[in-house]
From TrEMBL:
Similarity section: Belongs to the DIPK family.
Organism field: Trichonephila clavata (Joro spider)
Name of the protein this chain belongs to: Divergent protein kinase domain 2A
A GO term, aspect molecular function: kinase activity
First and last residue of the signal peptide: none
SUPFAM superfamilies to which the protein is assigned, alphabetical: Protein kinase-like (PK-like)
């Protein structure tokens, strides 16, 4: 049996805002996105829900960014935190966000995040500036008549992403178009994101020419420098460095293709002497 990428069963868009977003849903519904190869087969999906596909003529990767059991566990955690019975996870997220709002236009993101014991690396060193930056970046391309409702939905998507897997947030907050060494992010529909297919991982280049291996090594050093020395005053540190997390484009460019395991440090907090205070607060 084949998977239908346009179906709600595949995208789970009905669970938003406990999702990654919905900006790419029209392309899913209109048939612009298709699965290719064994990704089309319902019972041969990858263990971490990674699918090969096409967006129009462009080859892409579709991801749910977690194993099924991880998704189920997070849904249960959100329902337990909301203490709703019976519980729908989208309603649970709405309830939790509502409780984090002091005034209609004031969102205390730190208060929302600190109620969870998250295992994701991205919020191990949180700051209000970082969370606000991530939230604002999610809203950059949004157009909505009801601005307050849009913010409410984006808060839910930010919360869900940071707790499950921050890759979608990181790709939007630190986009390739601004020089970051990540794949292009096309968008999301429900619990599925779509990003650029870069190419083969650098594992395949172990026996390449000496010149090509030197170039790969040099680019990896540049990536490390870009992630830590940049104009945003956020330092991104990889915590899972292996050859399968980097891929090579046809033009030879190296990109980091798995950005789940990244710690983001607000360097302004360090400069202002507040970093240690935050660590104590969250310990």
């Amino acid at each position: 049996m084949h998977l239908d990428p346009s179906s709600d069963e595949f995208t789970m868009v009905n669970l938003c805002p406990a999702c990654f977003g919905s900006d790419l849903c029209p392309q899913f519904y209109h048939g612009d996105i298709s699965l290719i190869g064994i990704s089309k087969l319902k019972y041969l999906k990858g263990s971490k829900n990674v699918f090969s596909g096409k967006l129009s003529s462009n080859r892409v990767i579709l991801k749910r960014l977690a194993h099924d059991w991880e998704i189920t566990n997070l849904d249960k955690l959100l329902c337990d935190k909301a203490n709703l019975k019976p519980c729908k996870v989208n309603e649970a997220v709405g309830f939790l966000i509502g409780n984090s709002i002091d005034t209609p236009n004031e969102y205390h993101l730190m208060n929302l995040i600190k109620t969870f014991e998250s295992s994701t690396d991205v919020i191990q060193c949180p700051s209000e500036r970082l969370l606000t930056y991530l939230f604002n970046q999610l809203n950059v391309k949004r157009n909505s008549i009801d601005f307050q409702m849009m913010q409410f939905s984006k808060l839910g998507e930010l919360l869900y992403s940071l707790l499950l897997n921050p890759e979608a947030v990181i790709l939007q907050a630190f986009p390739q178009a601004e020089g970051w060494p990540f794949p292009q992010y096309y968008g999301s529909c429900g619990r599925v994101i779509v990003e650029e297919y870069v190419g083969k991982t650098i594992t395949y280049f172990e026996d390449s020419t000496w010149e090509q291996r030197i170039d790969i090594a040099y680019q990896l050093l540049l990536i490390a420098q870009i992630l830590t020395e940049n104009a945003s005053d956020f330092a991104l540190y990889m915590t899972d460095v292996n050859m399968d997390n980097f891929a090579v484009r046809r033009d030879g460019t190296i990109l980091l293709i798995d950005v789940e395991n990244i710690v983001i440090v607000d360097r302004l907090n360090i400069k202002n002497g507040t970093f240690l205070a935050i660590l104590v607060y969250f310990s």
